[in-house]
Amino acid sequence: MADLPYDGEDVDQLAHALQAGTLAVAAGSRPALVAAALLHDVGRLPHVEATLPQAPHERAGAAYVTGLLGAEAGWLVGSHVLAKRALVATDPDYLALLSPTSVRTLAEQGGPASGGEVERFLRHRLAADAMDLRRWDDRAKNPAARPLPIEQLLDAALG
Ligand SMILES: [Fe+2]
């Protein structure tokens, strides 16, 4: 993931993953949520993307993480784009927190979630976790951040 560019962001995919995982650990998250934060963009890795070439990265990532770590972490990975769309639709301050790239991709991802989509999403028992993960995702783009080492993050992710 190091040196794999992150679609115009200021950090590469490895730094982004480590920062997201570190924010999850700092929030006292359980292992499945740390794992999902760490791996939420794993569907952007070429060998994972290739498993579902027509699907958006969150779906390839969800399938991969479900196989690796189970349904809970997999659902969280698969929901990080819907969580963004739901947050845009429900929190008037949220859009201003997104990076320019993330604002641009919002349109490609379907724009703000519809009322029905938000309602269905919020009914899921992991919706609050998915929104926490999404906010860590949005913050994990800081070139000056000092994330935890990968060994410590894997310990926290694997319980
Ligand atoms: Fe991300």
Automatic annotation (TrEMBL):
Domain HD residues, every copy: 15-85
SUPFAM superfamilies: HD-domain/PDEase-like
PANTHER family with a match to the protein in the record: HD DOMAIN-CONTAINING PROTEIN, PTHR40202
UniProt protein name: HD domain-containing protein
